[in-house]
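Ligand: 2-oxoadipic acid. Inputs:
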Amino acid sequence: MTRTHTPPDEIRARFARAMSAMYRAEVPAYGTLVTLVETVNAQALAGDAALAARLATTGELARITEERHGAIRLGTAAELATMRRLFAVMGMVPVGYYDLSVAGVPVHSTAFRPVDPAALAHNPFRVFTSLLRLELIADVALREAAADILAQRRIFTPDCLALIARAEAEGGLTAAEARQFVTEALETFRWHEEANVTAGLYHRLHEAHRLVADVVAFRGPHINHLTPRTLDIDAVQARMPDEGITPKAVIEGPPARRVPILLRQTSFKALEEPVAFLAPEGVAPEGTTPEGQAPEGMSRGRHTARFGEIEQRGLALTSKGQALYDRLLAETRARVTPKADGSNAAQYLATLSEVFAAFPDDLDSLRLQGLGYFRYTPTGLAAQTDLTRPAAELVAAGVLRADPITYEDFLPVSAAGIFQSNLGDSAAQTFEANPNRARFEADLGAPVIDLHQLYAEAEAASLARARAALAQSPHPPAARPPARDAGPD
Ligand code: OOG
Ligand code: NI
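Predicted complex:
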């Protein structure tokens, strides 16, 4: 009997919706933020017809209201390897390697996401996925205790594991299996109030690093934020306080510009939430708290983990553009390092704008100087032209149109800023910078995809398609060779 499979893109879209509904119920401020983003996006589109037209051309207009990224933090190599298989069922693959140890966060990360333009247009859901690096924790005894606890937890339901194996064996899931998969997979990302550890161990883990406590002390990798995409991050940032949400002081990434590049992000602080710790053996559980009685055999406590974030996406930069961005950002931060309490935010932002004045801010310069990636489409104006001419000349001749390719990935310095803002103001620590991509890929069980290669291929493929389409389009009379036009009879 043949099986009809639900397309992975469809499973991903349904999963993203289910995750959003779950997170809205768990963290009400997320719902408030989504509503604010929808309002601002509608205003941005209404006020900028060119923006609306460009997003329609690149297939982003339809996806934008549902566009989200989330983030999780895993504890073991085995969890990471299984997570890769889980995301593969939904057409999401690991793109990029991000070393956060430089920024004092003991993790390294990748982003699981769809890669083909059609899949991105269907639903671009991505998950920034970090793996804890216990080897960066100095206290050996604590490290071993943490490793023992992590080795015992099971973050995937048995049915979820069975469905992943089924999808791999059969090459996909039937409609009924896909429905069940979404339900089962969601369980892994749910918040669990009951910790895996006693309050005493929690505090030791927390002291080593807040992030270690967040990963080790709980039953699973709760989704720690879900981020809607806005078309005007400055407007959302300015309006968040009116909605009772306090954003972090500084928007991460490039400054506000005419042509948005890469990614700008801001977040609001993590919530302090009630949790229940295991009671140490032989000790009676503590009494009631305002949240009520702890479950039998447990004691009450609090943990901050989950927060809200918004992002604005812009032009994907080539290696040359990325190098310029990295240099200007480093120069800005060497002049003014943003303080965690936000006290020098204005000075930082002024310096950022001043230093980034050196980054071209119109689409033509960005394209002609090779700083960004573009998608080429034929304009429909088939002129008399030699189609082997460079893309820039075909654009200048009005034969091709160039639209910016949107950056679909993350930025390590920004990610570190987001981590730090939700780990608390005093969490800044330093580790030796030691990226270990080979180790990460061994743990993942696969190489991570190079993001520049993806954008370069997308650009080259669009150009090849555009040239092929032009070559086939009927030439207007002026373009025809005269010999063929003037027939002998
Ligand atoms: C992930 C922080 C990074 C982003 O958008 O850069 C991130 C985390 O806190 O687990 O989500
Ligand atoms: Ni994020």
